[in-house]
Design a protein that fits this description.
Layout: H1 2-12, E1 20-28, E2 38-41, E3 46-49, E4 55-61, E5 64-71, E6 78-84, E7 87-89, E8 92-94, E9 121-125, H2 126-132, H3 137-140, E10 147-152, E11 156-161, E12 169-173, E13 176-177, E14 196-203, H4 207-210, E15 217-223, E16 231-241, E17 246-256, E18 260-271, E19 287-300, E20 303-317, E21 336-352, E22 355-371, H5 380-385, H6 388-394, E23 398-412, E24 419-434, E25 444-459, E26 462-477, E27 480-484, E28 487-491, E29 494-510, E30 515-526, H7 530-534, E31 536-539, E32 544-547, E33 555-567, E34 571-595, E35 598-619, E36 627-640, E37 653-664, E38 668-680, E39 696-709, E40 712-721, E41 746-754
Parallel strand pairs: 1-7, 1-8, 12-15, 32-35
Antiparallel strand pairs: 1-4, 2-3, 2-5, 5-6, 9-14, 10-11, 12-13, 14-15, 16-17, 16-41, 17-18, 18-19, 19-20, 20-21, 21-22, 22-23, 23-24, 24-25, 25-26, 26-29, 27-28, 29-30, 30-33, 31-32, 33-34, 34-35, 35-36, 36-37, 37-38, 38-39, 39-40, 40-41
Amino acid sequence: MKIFIKLLLLVASFSMNAQNSISGKITDINNNPLSEVQIYASEIHKGTTSNQDGTYILNNIPTGKIKITFSYLGFKTIVKYIDVNNDSILDIQLKESPFEMDEIIVSAPFNKLQSENVMKVERLSAKSIQKLGATTLSEAITNIAGVNQIATGASIGKPVIRGLSGNRVLVYTQGIRLENQQFGGEHGLGINDAGISSIEVIKGPASLLYGSDALGGVLYINPEKFALENSNNINFNQRFYTNTLGTNSSLGYKTSSDNWKFLIRGTYASHSDYKIPTDKRVTNTRFNEKDFKTGIGYSKDNFSSEIRYNYNKSKLGLPEEGVAEQSKSKSILEPYQEIDNHILSSHNHFFFGDSKLDIDLGYTFNDRQEFEEHHDEHGEDEEEDHDEDEHEEEGAALRMKLKTFTYNAKYHFPKIGNLEILSGVQGLHQTNTNFGEEILIPDAKINDFGVFTTANYTWNKNTLQAGIRYDNRKIITERHEIAHEDEVHVFEALDKSYNSFTTSLGLKTSITDNFTSRINLSSGFRAPNFAELASNGVHHGTNRFEKGNSDLVNEKNTQIDLSLEYKTEHFEFFANGFYNHINDYIYINPTGEVEDGEAVFSYTQENAKLYGSEFGFHLHPHPLDWLHLKSTFETVIGKQDNGNYLPLIPANTWRNTFRTEFNINKWFQKGYASLTLESTFSQNNVGTYETKSDAYNLLNLGLGGDVVLSKLNFSASLSINNLLDKEYIHHLSRLKADGTLNQGRNIVIGVRFNI
C-alpha cells in the first residue's frame, strides 16, 4: 500500500505548462451546423459539446498526436487523430446513420472504434442497462449474445462467456483487474451498476493483454465519464422493483474546470426475498448494498491522470430451504455473506510527441465473511431478539481478506506509416489471509509477472494484428491443521510456479463496402487457483466437501473465431462462429465419499472443447424511421475428450425485439417502446451431476423517454420482465437442484433527474 501511494504521488507531480487548444465547427453533409455533438478525448478525460452554431473548443491539450471522437445520435461516429502544436483547427462533417453510434472500444489494445477493431467486442451502454430493468449488473449483461450468468437468486450472479465462467472470465473495473475471491460459485461481481458508462465484453482468449484468468474472455467495466469542460452536474436516479419490493437510489455530483475534474456518487439498494409465479417467496434471497464512488482527474500539457475509488458493502442472504418461511422483510437472515470491496486505481498518460506511455496502478481489498445459522437452546422469542451486532460477536464461520496490488505499463511507439506497435509489462502481488473459525483455502501469496508486444498494420481495407506474451505466476501457501469434529483437515504447504507463452493473430478485411469479415486465432492460459489446489473442507455455499489437487497444471486453450458482418443503411446482419480447444480443463467431480456429512468433490483435469455461434440482424426499414426489428440467436456446446458434457453450459437462446422510437410534441422526447420475446430451448447436454432443463418463453416490455415540463426535465422508464408470470427454472440457476423457480413478473419503474 505504501508503494502504491508513493507511485501515485510520483505521477501526480508530473506536469508541464504549455497551453494548446483544438477548435472548429461541426456540420452535416449539407453544411448545416450541428449542436450538442459530443466531442471527447478519452486519453486526457476531456470533453465538450458543440454550440448552437456548431462551434466547439477544447483547451489545455497536450502537444503531440491526440485522438478525438465526434459522436451524435443519428449520425456516424468519427475519430480523428490530430497532431497538436499550439492552437489547432479541426472542422468536421457528420453523415447520417440510422443505427446506434459507433463507440471507442477501451478494452482492445489500440482503442479503436468498434467498426475498426480486429477483435469483435460487444458493448452495452449505461443507458441500455437502465432500460432493461435488471436487478443486478450481472443480470443486465445477459442481454449480450454469448453472455450468461450463474445465479443464486436475484442477488448473486457470475458472468458466463460462451460456456466458460469463474476464474476463466476476468473482470476489469476502473482500468484494473477486480480480485474478490471470484473462484467461488456463489461469489458475485460486487459492483453496482450506478456510476458506470458502459460494459465491454471480449468473447474468447484475451491472455495476450490481460494474462492468466482471461482464458475465456474479459468483462471490462468503464466508469462514468467526468463532467464536460467547465460544467457542473447533479443527477439523481431512483428505481422501484415490484417483485422484490426493492429500491435502488443513487445521487451523483460532477464538476469540471479546464484542468481539474471531480465526481462523487452514493448508491443504496435494498431487496426482500424474490417472488416466484406461484406468489410464494424464496426464503432468504433478500439482500442490500451500499456503494460509494469518487474520482479526481487532472490534465495539463503532456500529462493526464485520474484517480478513482470505489467502496461496495453488500449483505447477501444465502437460500438453503427454497420456499419456506414467508416474509417481506429486508432484514438479512443466517446464513448470509457480508462483503466489503475497496477498489483504488490510478490511470495515467504521459505524452512524448508521437509516442505515449500509459501507467495503471491498482489496489483492491476484499473482506469476505460468511455467517452460518446457529442452533442453540434459546427459545424462539430470544432468537428473534438476536440482532446483527450479536451475530458479529459470534464471529464469522468463514472470513477471508484478499489484498491485491496490480500494475500495468504500456508504451505506444511512434507510428511508422500504417504500423502501430505497443509493448508492456503487467503484474500483481496478492495475499489471502484467513480470520474465521473455518478455513476453506489456506493463507497464500500470488505473484504475477507478464511482458507482451502487439502490433497493428492497416493497408487498403485490411487490418492485421498480431502479438506475443510471456507470463509467470508463483503461488505459495502455508500449512494449516484444522480440527473439525473427530477429524483433522490438513492443508499442506505449496510452492508452485506456472509459466506460459500466449499468442494472437487476427485479420479484418472489408470484402465490399458493406461486407466485413474478421478471423482471429488466439491462445490463452489459466493457472490453477487457491481453491483448486488447496481446498480441504466443507464449502457451505455449495453444500459439499471440496478437496484440492496440488498436481494440477495450467489450463491452455486455442480458439479460432470467425465473424461476418453485412451493413447497409437500413439493415445489419452478423454471424459469429468459434471453436475453442482447452488442454487440461480443470473441473470438480464427485468422488462418492462423504466427509463431515457432505458429499466429497475433488478437482481433476481432462481435455475439452467448446464450439458454437451467434447470429443476429437489425432491420430499420425506410421510410419507417421509428421502427426497429432486432433478433439474435446463440448456441454453445461443451464436451470433454472422454465424451462427457461440460457442466454449466447455457441453453440455446433466441431473442426477438420489436422497438419503436417517437416524440410527443415538445414535452416527451427520445421516447421508446419495446417488446421482447426471449425463447430459451431445452438443455439436454448436461454434465455428470446436472439435470436436464425444459424450454420456456419470456415476454418483456419496455417504455420510456425524456420528459420536458417547463424547468422540470427528467428521464423515465418502465420495464416489465416476465410479463406473463411464466413458471420456469434457468439451467444455470444454483437453486435448480431444489426445484426452485426463477423470478416471476417484475415491474421496474425508474426516474433520473439532472439538476
